[in-house]
Write a structure and sequence with these properties.
8% of the residues lie in helices and 34% in strands. The chain has 343 residues and is mainly β.
Length: 343
């Protein structure tokens, strides 16, 4: 993964391939809760901001073109999370998909426990769009954007005694393999789950930036250990902190958009000097949301990219004034099919 120094070199016009010292810094790292739209340069350190908390719940999607099959042809999708490797094996003749799990405690790399199986439309030569997910203790498979039904057998529980931290395998979180077939895999995309951190502000009277308590007291150190899963977990475990929010009657905790830098009520300022900084009284709720009336606009023309009008801007000692990431594209149309009444 590129380090902040590598990104800084890019932004200043230096090609890292001509700087061996920069290339040596690029190494596999754990997937974190970084959101690109929250990344920035500047601040007190003048360095690229990047998040540091490992995310193990992942989804991989791809496009598969099966060109030739044999009697025992098989396609395997794998997602690693901690001590476990979750696999989806698809028989390219019958279309049967089998979900299984292998733990790092097993002696044999192929020592798997079958969880569930189901029929799919992945049979013989053809083009298929696949998505395999391991999120919230549940395995899911989509074929051509349709969810395959495995029933409750695709859900699992983790033993309380199982090691919960990342392993070396999490540096290679996704695997795709094929046996006795000829196929092409492209359009690969890895997505990660989003969640709320256990962060809070302790000082009741501050403006929202003082005496903050992070999920881990060792947060600065965690950023430097993303290439070493065991060291990262030890630093996280030692510095781990819980966040508790007490609510009175007629008080609500208002959450945001799951962004790591989301300004939900946990981190609001307390200029009103409330007893619970993070609580929203029922008297402040003046209406009820009942309709999604303007979903995000979708550009069209030029292959769905439209024509950029304005661009995102980034400021800081190592960033350019204007990026090549469009802020507004035209023409666009509202996603009418997403307009709906909220139940």
């Amino acid at each position: 993964m590129p380090t902040p120094r590598v990104w800084e070199a890019f932004s200043s016009g230096v090609d890292p391939q001509f700087e061996p010292s920069l290339l040596e810094q690029m190494r596999p790292e754990l997937i974190t809760d970084l959101c690109a739209y929250n990344a920035y340069t500047g601040g007190h350190s003048g360095q690229l901001y990047r998040d540091c908390y490992w995310v193990g719940d992942l989804t991989v999607s791809c496009r598969v073109k099966v060109q030739r099959v044999q009697p025992d042809s098989e396609l395997v999708l794998e997602l690693n999370e901690g001590c476990r490797a979750y696999r989806c094996r698809i028989d390219l003749n019958s279309g049967e998909a089998r979900l299984s799990v292998r733990t790092c405690f097993g002696r044999d790399v192929d020592d798997e426990q079958t969880l569930a199986s189901a029929k799919t439309k992945v049979r013989g030569p053809g083009r298929y769009r696949l998505r395999f997910a391991n999120v919230d203790n549940r395995l899911c498979l989509w074929v051509n954007r349709s969810l395959v039904s495995f029933g409750s057998a695709a859900e699992y529980e983790l033993p309380e005694t199982e090691y919960p931290g990342p392993q070396e395998e999490d540096l290679i979180p996704v695997g795709i393999a094929a046996k006795n077939t000829q196929l092409v895999v492209d359009d690969l995309l890895i997505r990660r789950d989003i969640y709320y951190r256990s962060e809070q502000i302790i000082d009741v009277d501050a403006e929202g930036f003082l005496n903050a308590r992070y999920e881990s007291a060792n947060q600065p150190e965690l950023r430097q250990l993303l290439h070493d899963p065991q060291a990262w977990w030890e630093a996280y475990r030692v510095g781990m902190q819980t966040a508790e929010f007490q609510l009175g009657e007629d008080e609500y905790l208002v959450l945001g958009d799951n962004s790591p830098r989301s300004k939900d009520s946990r981190l609001w300022a307390n200029t009103r000097h409330a007893r619970h900084r993070y609580a929203v009284p029922a008297s402040a709720l003046v209406g009820k949301a009942f309709f999604v009336y303007w979903p995000h606009g979708k550009p069209f023309l030029r292959g769905g990219r439209g024509f950029p009008i304005t661009y995102h801007k980034a400021y800081g000692p190592y960033s350019v004034e204007k990026t090549n990431y469009p802020n507004l594209r035209v023409p666009f149309y509202p996603q009418i099919f997403r307009m709906r009444r909220i139940r």
